[in-house]
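Technical annex B. To support the medicinal chemistry partners, we prepared a structural model of the target in complex with iron/sulfur cluster, based solely on the information shown next.
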Amino acid sequence: MPTDIALTPKDFKSDQEVRWCPGCGDYAILAAVQGFMPELGIARENIVFVSGIGCSSRFPYYMNTYGMHSVHGRAPAIATGLACARPDLSVWVVTGDGDALSIGGNHLIHALRRNVNLKILLFNNEIYGLTKGQYSPTSERGKITRSTPMGSLDEPFRPLSLAIGAEASFVARTIDSDRGHLTDVLRQAAAHQGTALVEIYQNCNIFNDGAFDTLKNPATRDDALLRLEHGRPYRLAPDAEEIVHDVEDPDPTAAFTLSRLRHPTPIGVLRSVRRPAYDQLMNRQTAGAVAERGPGDLAALLAGTDSWTVRG
Amino acid sequence: MTYVIAQPCVDVKDKACIEECPVDCIYEGQRSLYIHPDECVDCGACEPVCPVEAIFYEDDTPEEWKDYYKANVEFFDELGSPGGAGQLGLIERDHPLVAGQPVRAA
Ligand code: SF4
Ligand code: SF4
Ligand code: SF4
């Protein structure tokens, strides 16, 4: 609910000293988010950042909004409760590839399936950073890390394919250091009703430095990236036929194909379809039940006769 | 807040800092480098690699070089926010504060 509140990026900086490794991509994402927040026109007390555990999950400390550094992998669950109980809030989840896809894999897919009004920012650096460099659910096969000295045997998750498979209504990808692109994707995610999943390629310069260099280097990025824009044509390969990108296509097939593509790597919004948001449905259902049957009585329910007897 | 390149960089310019910057916001002038105050994301990667300790966090800039904050800001008055130094390469001018420095012998 945009209002005429005039805030600046500075207003979204907290007084906490930022404690990521010097050069970490998280700084660039933080600066872009703080730069974008004033556009929302929402008072800081009506914005909440919920995180799980990991380097990225320090994010709420640095935002001068409400926030919660919560339980490993459980940020989507906590944020679901918040968004349902307080539909007036702007609720954001900050998570990483380990937090979202390994420890919290279940919570993530069910939040997406339900389409709760959340904006999930998934910082994907393809490594466990906080615990010092073990392979993560998005690390490529054969990756040598401290926990895979002879190379990882696991097939990595592709977060956007997973999200589309979990019925996500909004799926996008962007890059930490591309401020303009990242901001544009945040803008579209914020405007979406329901769960928006934004995968952000984020450089961990300590344990997985340069993972996205070909996508960033001005000499290689034009060939390595497929910049998606709604209504604009793209090709899956140089000699393939042109397809007009339609984020609103109810059939997820084209978006799924894009989510599988590696060369070139698509960035931008892959899918953005309208579907009722869970919090709206839930609150409507509750209001309907109250109108029909009157407000409930919790004490009476607890002391009621509808009970089970457990026999030993 | 931003990081600032101060007087010790003038005529040194070894560019170690450019390698480290994750957002490519350190621009090369004729005699010094300049950090874009709006593009810098305060990550602190450049500061420890500078061999002559020319880079400071804005608030920690030594008193004698406080004006370099303005030099870094004003250098971009004409350029705006190009969003990446690599594509521009050498910009053949300097802020007057830098241009007015005596030439440092190599
Ligand atoms: S370990 Fe990696 S992801 Fe974590 S703060 Fe350091 S650079 Fe960033
Ligand atoms: S590392 Fe220091 S001396 Fe070298 S270019 Fe950067 S600021 Fe100048
Ligand atoms: S602090 Fe980080 S973003 Fe700013 S100039 Fe230095 S390396 Fe670049």
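Notes passed to the chemistry partners:
Residues B 5, 9, 12-17, 33, 50, 52, 54-55 surround iron/sulfur cluster (ligand 2) (CB under 6 Å).
The domain at 3-100 of chain B is CATH 3.30.70.20 (Alpha-Beta Plaits).
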